[in-house]
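The authors assume throughout that readers already know how a fold can be written as discrete tokens. For illustration, here is how one protein appears when written out as sequence plus structure tokens:
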Amino acid sequence: MRWRDPFRDETGLTSAGMVLALLLTLSLVFSAGQVCRVNAAASEVQNVADAAALAAENEVAEFMVVVRVCDAVVLSLSLTSLVATGLGVVALCVPTMASASETLLKAGRDVSHARDSFAEKAASGLNRLQRLLPFFSGASAASVAAANNAGASNYVALAVLAPFEGKDIAVGAHEGASTVQDEVDRDASDVKRAAEEAERAAEQASEAKRAAFERDCGANPEACMYERASALAGMSGLENPLYKSVDAWSFSVALKRAQAYYPRRLAMEVPEGSSVGDRARSALRSRFYAFASEEVARGYVRETEDSFDALFPRLPKNTAEMRATSLYTEAVYPCTTDSEGRTTMHAWPGCPGASGADGFGSIAHMEAGSYPTCAQCEFSASSMGKVAAASSSIENGFEYHYEAVAVAAERYEKARAELDPLSSEVKSRVSGLLDRIREAVGHAGDMRISAEPPGRFGVVVLAANTGREAASSGFASSFVQGSQALGARAAVSAATLGSDPSGEGANVISSVLDGLPDAGVAMGALSAVLDCRSALLESYARGQEALDDAVSTALDGMPLAGNSGLGPWAARALRDAIAAVGLQPANLDALKPVLVNSAHVARADGSAFSARLLTLKEQAIAHPAQSNDVFTSMVGAVEQGAIEEIASFDGKVQIAVVELLGEGGPSVPIEITLPPVVKDAAIDVVERAADEVRAVYAHVTGVRVWE
């Protein structure tokens, strides 16, 4: 009997062959599917490990936010102290702000002490907090892992910060503020005294200048030099300017007006009538205007911010004063001699009696020789003395107002002679103090808070799912045996901190001192200090711009006006000094945890744990089947860092308290709230996680490793 192949015949595949092929194909397909399902189930632990790593490193990120907040507070308090001192120095220059200057200078010292106290407490609090970071990170990682438990899953995670311990936080010294404050205290009384004396002298100078301004043009349309020059000489425009404000006016305006007036009057002079007397008086007025033109032309005004020197030549107002001028001694008057040898002097050559004059003489000669008076022009010494007498004695005369300006100029020059040295003394002392303040502000960065905490390089998380799950769960099939269970699955993940320039960091800093009361609750100068605190806190993020704004705002709110001008000058000097600092903003990119290869974290750390991790990773790559002891090799390092004193925390950790103006002033605490998982966790969270991770190794190898 011929044997027949059950799987093949002459016509092709048999039915049995086809069935067997289909069965084999389906078995392979479902086997491959089961492998994918098992791999997918096993890979879930990697996702949990990644989430746990991000949660663990986020605790480090939050810690760095607190560090930056404390650093910003220290810097802002340093700046506030120095700015308050600077404002106090400016206030010293204004006598009406004497009490405010004392308040501001005291506030500068109080804020400096508050900064020192805060910095010391903040460093201590931050050191304590960073010692807790390994526990916080471990508890957060364990909590995230546990939150993924569902069904038969039992996730555990253990976080290892790299490095595991941070460096102690210490605050640098900043002696600049106290040194400046000592210098200010030493010079304050001298600056205050000189400023008060300068203000009194400035008041006298101001009164003299205002009086001169009124007589020159300020009284318009009432009689004044401006009005008289317009009415008597027809002057206008640049020859006869009108000023509305004494601040824009200067003594040189009045002098130039007079220097233009007399040549114009000389050119315009004509007799008021045809009589000999009218023509004689006109001739004498011409002599007076010519004299006045020459005399006033000698005048000058030399004025700077620090000095005043002026000459307003005085014109005679009567015969006695005329005798002291060249009008009395100039030999310009024609003389005639009668038959008896007597000499007669005439007012001008056009006098009918001056016909045949044989010489010229002066009024001094006439009085010395007791000359007889000309019957026609009636010329005498009093004739010239009367020319300016009337216009110098009543308000409708130009000379009346010119004389008032000349007298005021002398008073002003005398006051300035007293004021200018005092003003120079104040400016010299204040400039030196403001230079010291500028230097101290430039060194404010010497006293800062920075940290190198645990986990600054990153975190490595060891995660495992110790729950037993049927291999066929979710993929039941008769083609694949389903009686076995999935064993413990484990994974390693790592995260580090990355910069996020989203502006979130600046927003956190700007809201730090929102708990402090508004300046409205403070009285007087203290409100300026409180107004500065927010703006100066912003300087941490905005740098010089915020510093300039804070100083300008504070100065704008201070009543610095005074006759001496020392207040506004000091304000400008303080603005200029602060503007020269060039304060740079801090890097406020928010720190966010990001996933990285654990090898990167280990290489950056360099600790024994990280070195072991790198070795194990290299072994795992070279010999995958021998890599199961990665956990037992690393768990010990974590457990040894278990944090103590957890039971003493009630959910909040106070780093320090900002007391802006000392114990009696407004204050606000800088504190953090612990994550709920940390608050609720027992002291053995890390220990239990370590035990369960060790159990993974025991489950895989069947050998419990005792450590």
Residues 516-523, 623-628, 637-648, 696-707 have pLDDT under 50 and may be disordered. The two ends are 74 Å apart (CA to CA). The longest strand covers residues 489-500.
